[in-house]
Amino acid sequence: MPRIALTGTPGVGKTTVAQAAQRHGWRVVDVKAWARQEGAVVAYDEQDQAEVIDVEALAARMPPDDGSSVLYEGHLSHLLPVDGAWVVRCDPRILRPRLQSRGYGARKTVENLEAEALDVILQECLERFGRVVQRDGSRRTPEMLFKSFAETDFDSLKQPDLEAVDWSGQLPFAR
Ligand code: DAT
Fold first, then answer.
1. How confident is the model at residue 1 (pLDDT cuts 50, 70, 90)?
2. Best mutation site among 12, 16, 29 for ligand 1, i.e. most ligand atoms within 8 A of its Cβ?
3. What is the pLDDT of residues 26-37, one digit of tens each?
């Protein structure tokens, strides 16, 4: 049974999908909370306003595959030794107000919008795994978004299953 990274740019809706998954009986590991428990938060990046997680230390502490499906949720989860990834995507026009309402500054907001429009996390996943599922959460309820991932037969996925998105036309982003 697969260990799946539930990943994507901050604010796209990973935690919300994870909550839907839990309601459907999935096991979910919140990577940031797990890192804190394991003492794998090694610094605080003032400029980035974010905790720095030692992903290699966490990777070394991955529990062995016990046969159950697990979602590892977080924007670094695809750097763990998992079997593949679910990548949540979000239209930057919807993402921007979400990031602003989190109190992200202009620089950090634009960096994340650029990362989303340039498919940065998707590309990182495709470099690492054959099994990658991408879905656009922009116009789906959390429940529908979760179902669109869960209905894929992850174990027998032979090639990436990528819903098309293209927000490159929105570049460059105004501050
Ligand atoms: P992430 O965990 O990727 O950082 P989140 O799950 O915390 O993102 O969601 C960010 C915000 O967006 C939060 O206020 C809930 C809202 N949201 C997430 N998914 C949504 C969806 N499918 N439809 C509407 N709002 C959504």
1. low
2. 16
3. 999 999 999 999
Determine whether the shortest distance from the Cβ of 148 to ligand 1 is under 6 A: no
User: From the alpha carbon of 137, which atom of ligand 1 is closest?
Assistant: 22
| Residue 95 pLDDT greater than 90, yes or no | yes
Strand (E) positions, 35-146? 41-45, 50-53, 70-73, 84-89, 132-136
Residue with tokens 């593949």: 84
14 C-beta closer than 6 A to ligand 1: yes
48 pLDDT more than 90: no
Q: Please, are residues 32 and 53 in contact by the beta-carbon 8 Å criterion?
A: yes
Residues 46-59, mean pLDDT to the nearest whole number: 91
- CA 20/CA 96 separation, integer angstroms: 23
Atom of ligand 1 nearest to the CA of 141: 22
Burial (CB count within 10 angstroms: exposed 0-12, middle 13-18, buried 19+), residue 93: exposed
**pTM (two decimals):** 0.97
Instruction: Please give the mean pLDDT across all residues of the chain.
Output: 96
Q: For residue 64, how far is its CA from the centre of ligand 1 (angstroms)?
A: 30
pLDDT reported for residue 85: 98
